[in-house]
Amino acid sequence: MSFVSVLSGSLRYSDSSSSIGYLPEVNVGLAADIGTLSYLPKITGNHSLMRELAYSAAMFSAADAECLGLVSRVVPGGRTEVVTVALRLAGVIAGKSPIAVSGTKRILNHVRNHSVPENLDYTAVWNTAAFRTDDITESLRAAGARTAPQFPPIRKAKL
């Protein structure tokens, strides 16, 4: 069984032979307490399913997990194949603007708990700040030269 998470849990891949037990805590007399009950209904969009899994601690297949939206991809094979596919995606993402990837992640996290109008305002503020970076200029330069862009790493603020 192999389950790989890319980008701090934002993307989840599984191998085709995985069986997943998402909420085993109920079997030992506890409610799930590491955020699963908070995130599962938002991931699946299905409160009925969340309750079924939380109350029963049922095991389910990787194919079921993909249908439920718990994993974004089921990779044929085992751990090696899952890691290969995940690393390939990580390489693609690493070639993108760090400002754009970071901003996209923050905006997607923000929208989980905010309305569309609130998120549009948040996005406008984020992108206004992004215009002050060199990533857009570098993207345009690279496109014109038909080369891969070379983005500087994100600098940490000195506080």
TrEMBL record:
GO terms for cellular component: mitochondrion. GO terms for molecular function: delta(3,5)-delta(2,4)-dienoyl-CoA isomerase activity. The keyword Ribosomal protein does not apply. It comes from the Eukaryota. It holds the Pfam family ECH_1. One of its GO terms (biological process) is fatty acid metabolic process. Pathway: Lipid metabolism; fatty acid beta-oxidation. Keywords: Fatty acid metabolism, Isomerase, Lipid metabolism. The keyword Cell membrane does not apply. Gene3D superfamilies: 2-enoyl-CoA Hydratase, Chain A, domain 1 (3.90.226.10), Lyase 2-enoyl-coa Hydratase, Chain A, domain 2 (1.10.12.10). PANTHER family: DELTA(3,5)-DELTA(2,4)-DIENOYL-COA ISOMERASE, MITOCHONDRIAL, ENOYL-COA HYDRATASE. Belongs to the enoyl-CoA hydratase/isomerase family. This is ClpP/crotonase-like domain-containing protein. The lineage of its organism: Eukaryota, Fungi, Dikarya, Basidiomycota, Agaricomycotina.
